[in-house]
Amino acid sequence: MKAKARILVVDDEECIRNTFEIFLSYEGYDVTTACNYSEGLAAVAQKEFDLVIADIILGGRTGLDLLGEIRARNLQCQVIIITGDPTAGSALDALHKGVFKYIPKPVRKDELIEVTRAALNYK
Amino acid sequence: MKAPQNISPIVTALTGTVICIVLIIFPLGYFFVSYNNMVGNLEAEAEINARSITKIISTNPEIWEYQQLRLQEYLLSRPGQGYAENRHIVNRSNKIVAENADILEPPVIMRAANLYDSGAVVGKVEIYRSVRPIIIQAALIALYMLPVALGVFLILWFIPLRMLYRSEDTLRESEERFRELSQEFQTVLDCIRDPLLQINHELKILWANEGASAGFGGETHSITGRYCYELWHSRSAPCEKCAALKSFATGTTEVLQIATPDGRLFDERSFPVKDEDGRIKSVVVVAVDITAKANLQAEIVRAGHLASLGELAAGVAHEINNPINGVINYAQILSDKMVKGSKEEDMAVRIIKEGNRIAEIVRGLLSFARERKDIKMPVHISAILKEALALTNTQMRRDNIQFSIDLPENLPLIMVDFQQLQQVFLNLINNARHALNQKYPSPHELKKIEVRGEVVTVSDMPYVRVCFQDYGTGISSGILNKVINPFFTTKPSGSGTGLGLSISYGIIKDHGGSLKIESEEGEFTRVIIDLPLTPSI
Question: What is the ipTM of this complex?
């Protein structure tokens, strides 16, 4: 049996973490959540993930910082950046750092599952 | 040298008269002097001869008449030179006793002296002399005088005329210079595009430049003599605050800011013009149109507001996007768990739908408020309208205003700045909403805004035409051509800036298009926007 894909959801909003976890778990993924940059960084340090879904605004640091750190550590996982304040600047920054997809909020169930599948298949 | 009118014949006549008089007086004077001299000579000669002959008579009183040879010899004894003369000695019976006869040419004059014997007249001596030599000499003098007189005539005629000509030339040059200066001055003042007026105490226009006449829509001469308040403010009496009247009263330069009925804003400055005694004769008024400047200032303020709104919207959008994302997703979870077609599932779907609406509004707000620097991109007109409607939907529903949209899907894409066009559509929708609410405070079947789109050809160029039509209060023909002017508004104070349509007009012009307004008061207002398919900018 194929191992469940491991997904880390990093968002300071509980409702996002919670609903994403439900949607993705229902699809059969192994979902871990983190509420800020430090927790997210600790999670990727402890466990190998296939996909990281991170919000940009995460308290003091950002999801883009986390993306940079993942790339710096040469971790083999895809990263999807979600944001409630999409700007051309942050989108370009994310692209430079090797983001798989940059999605403005609200991120609905269908879109989430679709982009998750695409990211995992890409890997 | 052009002869002065009327003066030249007078000078010629006067000079001619003087010369004629001089020409006659000299020979005549000579003649009369010479004649008198001749007469005196003849009288003296006759008297001398008479006395000498009287002595002869006294010696021989009885026979003197027979001493003819002696008497004749006496008559001949006179200087050989001199005028030719005839000398006669006649007795009491006027019979010639002796004579000496030269040839005399007429005319001839004669002078006689009596001969006495013991006191009694016994005869007389007559001496004749011709006047012709004097006449000839006088005539010769007249002849000699002729060229002199002609010369004098020319001098007397030429010098005064020359002086007159010079005076006239100087005067003409002075007039010419004055005219040139006047024209230059007028040109300089006409180059000033702002209205420039000179007005008197009654506030009547004495003079105006072309800027003023153009501003009043007439010729310069047609506004001269009219009251400034009548032309400028369409009033029948002076304005309550009048810089010109204040200048007349204070004698100093006064400044006032005024708004004209057609929505323009002027910085009016009046400068008193004083005479030699320091009394104020008139006032020069310069009115600088600061509408564009004020517009720019308003734009800067507006840009500042938009920037603040942009920052605020970005923050709010983030704050709303997260919870609304949660609401939509939780509702989705509920919907997934509900029995399909159940009432509960329907409610969950409704929550998702309303959540999506909120998300759309937030996105539209962010799109509107965020600063974009003239980024033109190919856009379908319906996409812009959709964004604008998302922002106004709630207001429209609250006001019971219906939308009727007819935008064919095959309308071509146009190169526009999305945000700017959205701003134009929002302005037009807002104006239509205001007109409809004024006419129909309560729901009505005609309380609707129609939006139509089509491709048209104007001057052989393809355009996408979008018409916004409402059936509200309409615009009266008197102000229809003013509604695009900045600061012109029909809305109550505080409800409108008067900038919406002018900004919209500017945006459409910037896109190489046109914005026209058609309206019938009380019936409808139609705003027609033409945007080029191929950008001309």
Answer: 0.84
